[in-house]
Design a protein that fits this description.
The chain is an alpha/beta fold. The chain is 44% helix and 16% strand. Helix 3 runs parallel beside helix 4. It is globular and about 65 Å long. The N and C termini lie far apart (103 Å).
Length: 416
């Protein structure tokens, strides 16, 4: 039997252990945090599988890295962003169903990749009054204006920038002769429409309009035919895989020896050099609405910090374009919360008191300034760079060049 003295000692020890346990338990508790404000939901209709996956994957990586940046930096006026995205595999039916899903889930705005999803989503968005922000676009997506906005200049703008750039140094008495070689989709069609609107006005001559499929494996026949036309410039409006095939085939038939090859912004990224081969790609010109990867500007430094912290996406223009677009969206959401308050956020107020209030927003030099205040022009940044592949890298060979506004809907042929 335990005597009284030992019992008292045991009780004291047990009490001490309990006190220590309570202290340690209290120390282990996280510091109190303020009650988290409700989120701001936005959606993304993306293609991370299918023929446009090489564009869609870096776009989603950029979007998710941006969400980390916003939420780890205090959110939008204290509200975290909640991003939901669904893969459509670049299929029009899935694009429509995913849009409806994102709409029904209460997203305040929806982002899409480019002209094909924009063509599918815009009629739906116009009917529902939900703002769409597209990374790429075609003229039919924004003319006349509706509820679809674009972050940058795009396919059709590239023709005007190229034509003006050519004329700056053209010395012959005849007009420069250009052949267009575009994808048989809105990427290629919009360039042709731009040439109809601008070629004569600028002073260039388009001598042929050629088209290729997104998944083409050879363009030797079309390029052999084009070589016989004696063009001064071949303007390839495509995506990176098909663009690389055309560049290699142009070298194979000797076309690259007799004319200057230019690719549009959808193909002017680092993978084009890899797929074409460094020697074949050397000297090819390109265009872009963002600066080359790694350019020494403040916005690029911030982007790469978040990139390395999370997705670690390798060099990609689509990533940079999407990052810049989401910076503009971030500013729009801030404007909307400040102007109407969180409780009054709706797709309409986000559009009218957010997107349409973004004026001369600086992305830190990675793109032109984003401005959605114009009642007609739905483009955010309205400038483009001319680039060239030099020593295996894209290098800017022009300053930011303004892209003129074209009222396409005023032409009889538009939309036909």
């Amino acid at each position: 039997m335990m005597n009284k003295g030992k019992r008292q000692i045991l009780i004291a020890v047990i009490a001490l252990v309990m006190v220590i346990a309570l202290i340690l338990s209290a120390c282990a508790q996280p510091s109190p945090t303020p009650t988290e404000k409700p989120p701001i939901p936005i959606g993304f209709a993306a293609s991370v599988t299918g023929p446009a996956a090489t564009m869609g994957v870096p776009m989603i990586n950029a979007a998710e890295d941006w969400v980390h940046k916003v939420n780890e930096s205090g959110g939008i006026e204290g509200h975290p962003v909640e991003l939901t995205w669904y893969d459509d595999a670049y299929d029009a039916a899935k694009m429509a169903s995913n849009y409806k899903r994102l709409r029904d889930e209460g997203n305040l705005l929806i982002v899409c990749m480019g002209s094909k999803p924009a063509s599918v989503l815009r009629p739906l968005a116009d009917s529902d009054g939900i703002p769409i922000v597209s990374i790429y676009y075609a003229p039919t997506n924004i003319c006349p204006p509706g509820h679809l906005y674009c972050a940058h200049a795009c396919y059709s703008d590239g023709f005007g920038v190229l034509a003006n750039w050519i004329m700056e140094s053209w010395e012959e008495s005849r007009p420069p002769r250009i052949v267009l070689h575009g994808q048989d989709n809105p990427i290629g069609w919009s360039t042709v429409q731009a040439s109809w609107a601008l070629a004569e006005q600028i002073g260039v001559e388009v001598i042929s309009e050629e088209f290729h499929e997104l998944e083409t494996i050879s363009e030797v026949a079309s390029l052999t035919r084009i070589k016989g036309m004696n063009p001064d410039f071949l303007y390839i409006t495509s995506m990176v895989q098909s663009g690389a095939i055309i560049i290699k085939d142009a070298t194979r038939v000797g076309l690259s020896d007799v004319c200057t090859i230019v690719v549009n912004e959808a193909a002017s990224w680092e993978q084009l050099i890899e797929l074409s081969g460094t020697e074949v790609a050397e000297g090819v010109y390109g265009q872009n609405v963002v600066v080359p990867w790694g350019t020494d500007v403040p916005g690029m430094k911030e982007m790469l910090e978040w990139n390395q912290k999370y997705s670690k996406q390798v060099s990609s223009n689509q990533y940079t374009m999407t990052w810049a677009a989401f910076l503009g969206i971030e500013e729009a959401l801030k404007q909307a919360v400040r102007n109407v308050g969180y409780d009054s956020l709706t797709p309409q107020t986000v559009e009218e008191q957010g997107i349409q209030k973004v004026k001369d927003f600086d992305t830190g030099g990675i793109s032109g300034k984003i401005d959605w205040t114009d009642d007609y022009d739905r483009r955010g940044a309205k400038v483009m760079l001319m680039l060239q592949i030099q020593d295996g890298k894209w290098v800017a060979v022009s300053d930011w060049t303004d892209c003129p506004v074209v009222h396409y809907e005023e032409y009889e042929w538009f939309g036909k």
